[in-house]
Design brief:
The chain is an alpha+beta fold and 203 residues long. Helix content is 38%, strand content 21%. It is globular.
Length: 203
């Protein structure tokens, strides 16, 4: 935590990469290092890994689907770039070189909210890699105009087919003469394949 604070105060890639290395070897490796076939599934705490690395066997199916001509044509991907890989060490290292792994994305979220862009954080409650407790704390601690109201909001249940499907909190705050929504939603029984963040433009 101390090194993470230094990284935040001095966002130099050399400093932040050291903080990431200490965090990995001091904390993350104890569950992430077991992500092999039959080991601990960091993406769904109720199941073992089905395969090394990504744990989900359907990861290969996703990669195969995204490598189809139909998908490339729908996305307008140029011919020379039609080779999708679900993971890439090179891309991960490029992100780390820009502090993407060590610095919070709160400034980007604040930029969206300040410009009238609705933002939804959604979370599978079985995901350990992007865990609900950590992400919810992140959402509550974000300093912005709507923070007091968001923190004060009670957690509400949402349903699907008349069954409890998760819980949520949300606020609508006037930002630059526009009502802007910030929401945090959990999905019961879901893992990493659900956890994400999406922003929707309000026209």
């Amino acid at each position: 935590m101390e090194l993470a604070k230094v990284c935040y105060a001095h966002p130099d890639p050399a400093i932040c990469s050291v903080a990431s290395w200490v965090c990995w070897n001091g904390v993350i490796v104890y569950y992430d290092g077991e992500s092999y076939a039959g080991g601990r599934n960091r993406f769904d705490i109720t199941k073992p890994c089905e395969m090394d690395g990504l744990c989900y066997s359907n990861s290969q199916l996703i990669q195969d689907y995204l490598n189809t001509t139909r998908v490339f044509e729908a996305l307008g991907v140029p011919k020379g770039f039609q080779n999708y890989s679900i993971t890439s060490i090179e891309v991960m290292m490029a992100f780390e070189a820009t502090n993407d792994l060590g610095i919070s994305t709160q400034p980007q979220i604040l930029f969206l909210l300040e410009n009238g862009i609705d933002t939804l954080i959604y979370q599978g409650n079985l995901d350990l890699a992007c865990n609900t407790a950590g992400n919810f704390r992140w959402a509550n601690n974000m300093v912005w105009k709507g923070q007091p109201e968001f923190v004060a909001q009670p957690i509400k249940q949402w349903t699907s087919a008349e069954k409890r499907a998760g819980w949520f909190k949300e606020v609508n705050i006037k930002m630059n003469d526009k009502s802007t929504r910030f929401s945090f939603v959990t999905h019961y029984g879901a893992g990493h394949m659900v956890s994400n963040m999406v922003s929707l433009s309000v026209f």
